[in-house]
Amino acid sequence: MSAPLRIMPSRDEGSPPAEGADTIGAALAGDGAAWSVLIAHHSHRVQVALLARGVPIERARELTQETWLRLMERQRAGRLTELSLPGLAIVQAGFLAANERRHSNRHLPAAALPEPATRRTGEDEVLGKERIGRMVRALDACPPGARRVFEVVYDHPELAYAEVAAQVGLSVQRVKQIVFEVRKRLRAALEEEPR
Amino acid sequence: MSAARPAEAHASAADLELYVIDALAPATRRQVEQHVATCDRCALGLQAEAVLEVTLGQLWSEVQRARRPVAAVVPLRPRRSGGAPCPPMRRSGPLGGLAAAAIAVLFIGWWTDGGRIDSLRSPSALAPPPSCAITALFHEGASDDRLVCISEALPSPTALASWATCAAPAPAFASALCTDRSPPSAVQQ
User: Fold this and answer.
1) Complex ipTM over 0.90
2) Would the CA dihedral through A110, A91, A40, A179 be positive or negative?
3) Of B139, B113, B119, whose CA–CA distance to B174 is shortest?
4) S-S: B155 plus which of B57, B122, B143, B163, CB 3.0-4.6 Å?
5) Is A5 within 8 Å of chain B by CB?
6) How many Cα atoms are found within 13 Å in the side-chain-facing hemisphere of B70?
């Protein structure tokens, strides 16, 4: 394992600075401060995406840092004309994780490797629709205020909690609590057995 | 949101969930990270939370689509205010559509009569259909070089396009078609 890169700012200093409309443009122009803002905003989501892939937490942090370095290198080389975040960073991180897994699995027998993804069947489609229906019902059963907060958070993943709080007129703490509660209901809906 | 506790203790389900949604206090977050790095059970719990978060993010657009219809349904005929409700509109069957198409074809045939849209025709469209060429042969003595359809009866709608072309003034190259001046037997009357 390589030595961890240290480009991620400490998140103990409070909320990251707000990401303005021109932050992406400035980052694409090579502004280091703009990159710092973007990294502070989106690193957590990138790390969660890696955790979901089964990457251990320490390695997920390192791969997240490596992801940003790769993106900045691409920008410096003039090979980055668009910067859609956090999507691009998550894709880049997923690529790095997959690459690493391939290398570490080289010595394993083929049977130990995960099965390739199969095509969705009609049954999958039906189950998927049922799942969406359960989520819709769970969300509609939430109080309108909580629903609104949750919608802002998930419709705008680029917004920090502080920005969401300012938009909906609540405290940051309350916004986090609402997200926590609504998410709990959605989890129950997702885990519910199909009828 | 959650009180700090020793790093050796397992992370609670709430802590793992709060970690994933980035809602933990910095001190607690550090403790969770330290513990998860050494505890397989909590690492699996954190992975499950992360999978849920990614799934939520992926399904969110579909959920919103299902909750918000793409566009409101606009009634085609608003009800009259105050008056009696409008009688239900009779739907025309397939014959109605055919009749409309036939009328359109007839109109086009009439409109092209007299060469009114000659300028719109391409040179290839100006080539007379075989029946017109044959008619030109039949009228070899005619001085005005006009093509005249031989059929006295109104042609069927499907033949109207050809008929219209026949009715149009003959182009100069029409006479060039008349290489054989003898009337063909098929059109002899």
Assistant:
1) no
2) negative
3) B139
4) B163
5) no
6) 1
- For residue A129 the two structure tokens come to 């629709």
The Cα of B72 is separated from the nearest Cα of chain A by a number of Å equal to 19
Percent of chain B with pLDDT over 90: 23
Give the single-character DSSP code of A105: T
Please say whether the beta carbons of B79 and B85 come within 8 A: yes
Residue B67 three-state SS = helix
- What predicted TM-score, i.e. pTM, was given to this entire model? 0.60
Contacts of B56 (CB under 8 A, 6+ apart): A154, A183, A186
Cβ–Cβ under 8 Å, residues A83 and A28: yes
Tokens read off for B149: 């359809």
Residues A49, A57: Cα–Cα separation, whole Å: 11
Where helices occur in chain B by DSSP H, the ranges are: 13-20, 26-38, 40-67, 94-112, 123-126, 130-138, 160-167, 174-177
Q: Inter-chain contact A176–B53, Cβ cutoff 8 Å?
A: no
Q: Do the beta carbons of residue A90 and residue A44 sit within 8 Å?
A: no
